[in-house]
Amino acid sequence: MTNPESRESLCLHFLWDWLKEQQSLLRSPFFPVLFSLTVYLSCCLPYACLDLLCSRLHVCFIFPISVLYWYWKPVFFPPLAPDMLSVVRDILACLLLFDMQYFFWHLLHHKVTWLYNSFHKDVWELLSLSLFSTLNPALLGCHPLTEMLFFITNIYLSVEAHSGYEFPWSPRRLVPFGLYGGAHHHDLHHLRFKVNYAPYFTHWDRLFGTLLGPDTKRASSNTNTFKRM
Ligand SMILES: [Zn+2]
Ligand SMILES: [Zn+2]
């Protein structure tokens, strides 16, 4: 006759035997850190995935549009790679052009009530913004490699602006003279609506009097969700 208790503990025996075989790892000084970190991150992972799925803007619109663009885009391979200086210059030019287009397009949506109610945060607005970002490298005659690097930079900056975090290596801290807005700057747009229309840089908002810096008194309240590291 089989003892039910022993049957129940059978899988524990398997687990324990397997763990005993890993003794060298378990006795290693790295094990406490590795074990704690793995357990902690595994528990956080489902929530991180939920956060990602809830971010409809990026997952439902920007991601599929990006996939379709790279799927249909004609592929050509110039024999030579671009030089580093022209890559940096062209990426900066594409970013500044995109920043200007986004600023005026965004401002227009906030000034015209009908546009704001019909299109702001809607798929059509995102489509037009994706159009700007994909047209700019073609308009400026960029090398395909530069175009790919601009795509990576633009997506990184867009995700960073919506991340709610600011690290010592965040663009706002790397670009001098307050020329770059960053995550807190963009958070303030979502909180106050009538400020910080540009996605990345600050010069257009400064020129039009719509800039709200993260350190101003008006900005410091009601921004508890922002995390500065
Ligand atoms: Zn936003
Ligand atoms: Zn807006």
TrEMBL record:
One of its GO terms (biological process) is lipid biosynthetic process. It is found in: Membrane. One of its GO terms (cellular component) is membrane. Coiled coil: none annotated. Residues 124-210 form the Fatty acid hydroxylase domain. The chain crosses the membrane at residues 30-50, 57-72, 84-105. GO terms for molecular function: iron ion binding; oxidoreductase activity. The keyword Nucleotide-binding does not apply. Keywords: Membrane, Transmembrane, Transmembrane helix. The keyword Transmembrane helix applies. Pfam families: FA_hydroxylase (PF04116). PANTHER family: STEROL DESATURASE. This is Fatty acid hydroxylase domain-containing protein. It comes from Channa striata (Snakehead murrel). The lineage of its organism: Eukaryota, Metazoa, Chordata, Craniata, Vertebrata.
